[in-house]
Every structure is written in structure tokens, then in C-alpha cells.
Write a structure and sequence with these properties.
Elements: E1 3-8, H1 14-26, E2 31-35, H2 45-51, E3 58-61, E4 64-67, H3 69-79, H4 93-108, H5 111-116, H6 120-123, H7 133-149, H8 163-176, H9 184-194, H10 197-203
Parallel strand pairs: 1-2
Antiparallel strand pairs: 1-3, 3-4
Helix pairs in contact: 1-3, 1-8, 1-10, 4-8, 8-9
Amino acid sequence: MALTLYLDRFWISPYAFSAFVALEEKGVPFQVKELGLDKKDHHDPAYRKGSLTGRIPSLEHDGFWLSESSAIDEYLEDTFPPPKHPRLYPAGTKDRARARQLQAWIRSDLMPIREERGTHTMFYKKAEKPLSKEGQEAAKRLLEVAGALLPEGKDQLFESWSIADADLAFMLMRLVMNGEAVPPRVKAFAETQWKRPSVKKFAERSRPPYVPY
């Protein structure tokens, strides 16, 4: 079995984060190959041929390539299923659907947050400008959804941990790490998830000087 995860060399992609955490949680051996998006490494013909989309992350598994983080997460769940391997998605049908809904929403909405609180502001220089009106509205929606989904007195969304916990925490940390106002219960959830070993391994790694791309 040979698993290789291709990700950005600055380790700031939320999508690479999701795939990396999923692999760590599954406990399967894998190697990482870094691509410099600032250097257009993802335009290399060999990489584009394998990944099809030329995007990161991509997973290569015994010659099979797959890009898009949500597809990678689900592939890992199917390929290394519980109970032999730790679960990435809730066992219940409705909870599993909710986790996938949350992942899809985080990836497709909240653009003002993603633009104004880019992931480089989490790991490099903090944002200098306050959130715009659109950014404030997006932050309000994010916090409302997080508050509605997070059970009282719990530090995870479902009965057991899921990859949706990590993805939601990453989005919330865009606000938390830039000093935005976040309700205590939601902030505690995000910070608790940030201490999870698989998450810490991504978040606390050494990074090269940032080059905008």
C-alpha cells in the first residue's frame, strides 16, 4: 500500500488540512509531497495528468489518483473502514448526511470570510483591516450555524468525533486567530478541536516564509 498526499508547501490550504487530518486519524502510513503553488508546481503536466484538475490536495493510492478534499475524505472512509480503522463520519445516516452538508457548505459559501481572513492570516501575518459589511454578515451566518449544530456542553458535533468537526474548527479559527468576536461556547469548541493531535500536527508544523500567490 502506497499513499501519497500532495499539498501546498506553506501548509495553509483548508482542503489539504482536511485530507491530512483524515489520513492521520485513519492511522495509515502515508507520505507527503509539497507543491509550490507560488511556483506553479501544480501546472506540471505529470501532476495535472494524475490529479485531473491540477488542484490540491490530491491523493495517490497505489497508482489511483483522486483530488478534491471531500472526495478524498470519503474515499479514505470507504477504503479504510471502521471498526478496523477510526471513523471519519458519524455512524448514523442522518448525522452522516449532516456532516457532509456542513463540509459542502463550508467549501462553497462564506466567501467574504475566506477572502478577508485568508488562511495565511492564521499562520503568518494577521489581518490588518476589519471585516467588511459582507464579511461581518458571513461571520454572523457561520457563528449561527455553529451555535445551532453544537450540542450544549459538548466539544464535538456528534456522538463521536468526525472530520466535519475539524473542517468547521478550521473555518472558525479564521475568526478566532484574527481576534474577531466569537461566542464562548463556539470558541471553546474550535480551540478544543485545534488541540487534537492530528490537527496540531498540521497547525504547528514549521513553515517557510510566505510568498503570496
